[in-house]
């Protein structure tokens, strides 16, 4: 280890969270950064991603904006902009927009691979990314060093470990195991049991069917299709469909959700992610409006994602180890904010670890500040996105929309639209600046 290195940071997982965190940390020259990724090459899932003004401000601060603007279809503005149109889609005839989501600052729509490639291009050489390194476990030594053990039998060492290894995080499993053992040894048996229970993700009751549709194909079937030019959501009872253009308009990101909220927190039987057939979800949408039918006809080899979440954790840290992104707080995607929250985690972690006052001897204090600031926020977002999932599938006000006369249905939709926007406006009316300020203030006074 070079003598002018203040901290040796290991990041487990080179997804959106891990790589963004690596880039944010790389701005501090006295940190040594290694990213360990289980996959043999870095390749994001073939799907789109929407980023709201909160994470976009971070992206701007990290110098990624100009490169990303070249690959978005709709560009990004700071002023008021229509970010999504909402329609009731679950009837065979064409409906009308019942709501337009106007945000202050755009929802930036990207191909995940474009975001990942941009991040990789910006990472300095000093920040090393190691592929085919699947973490098996870690152990924290009294000396302060953490030993990382990988599946291939190799080991590595670091001062601080950031678990950015996603929904099925090994770091979370080790961290909760570690905390459960301490709780057990101190007679806190209930807490120990609760910690162990939080290791495994739970099914949200919702499945997502994702596909990228070539815009040309959709255009050929339905030249005036809204999703070719604008983000749109078609809502219905027990499910919804969203679609938006990405990759300079060459592709349309399509996601169909089927919702069984009554099965929330149960076990999903079957693979969580798999290539499937349209027949798996076509019956749900067969009587939906013509634009939905046109997209369904264009879908090929959809991926099924059984949406799982992580139960709210009591802490994201243990000793010199911290969880971030989906490893810490995997949430439902109904506010398009999971990756945004991972980006925020990475940025705040870089703020506390990059601070010159943070050393090997007081690392725990820096991580505690991260935990105290980020955990309540991530958990609030988790609950808000959960609620939007309810609203999008017409669970609202205890009313059954199908039992309402047409004029009351419209009123129901209008009120519901207002409700989910209110629930969501944190994503464009607030910034991460307050959290950064708070972290710096606490570091100064620590
Ligand atoms: C249908 C759907 C739509 C979504 N849409 C949006 C959206 O529009 N906007 C948004 O903000 N969010 C969205 N999300 C959420 C978003 O995808 C996630 O929150 C985000 O990808 C989490 O990033 P992450 O880096 O924490 O984890 P991941 O992206 O899962 O990355 C984890 C990385 O760790 C690696 N890894 C795993 N285990 C190990 C190990 N043991 N050792 C080493 N490496 C390991 C993995 O290979 C992977 O590269 C959506 C999610 C879904 C399911």
TrEMBL record:
GO molecular function: FAD binding; oxidoreductase activity
FAD-binding domain ranges (all copies): 7-175, 311-384
Keyword annotations of the record: FAD, Flavoprotein, Oxidoreductase
Matches recorded under SUPFAM superfamilies: FAD-linked reductases, C-terminal domain (SSF54373), FAD/NAD(P)-binding domain (SSF51905)
GO annotation terms (biological process): secondary metabolite biosynthetic process
One of the Pfam families matching this protein, by short name: FAD_binding_3
PANTHER family: FAD-BINDING DOMAIN-CONTAINING PROTEIN-RELATED, HYDROXYLASE, PUTATIVE (AFU_ORTHOLOGUE AFUA_3G01460)-RELATED
Name by which UniProt lists this protein: FAD-binding domain-containing protein
Organism of origin: Marasmius oreades (fairy-ring Marasmius)
Organism classification: Eukaryota, Fungi, Dikarya, Basidiomycota, Agaricomycotina
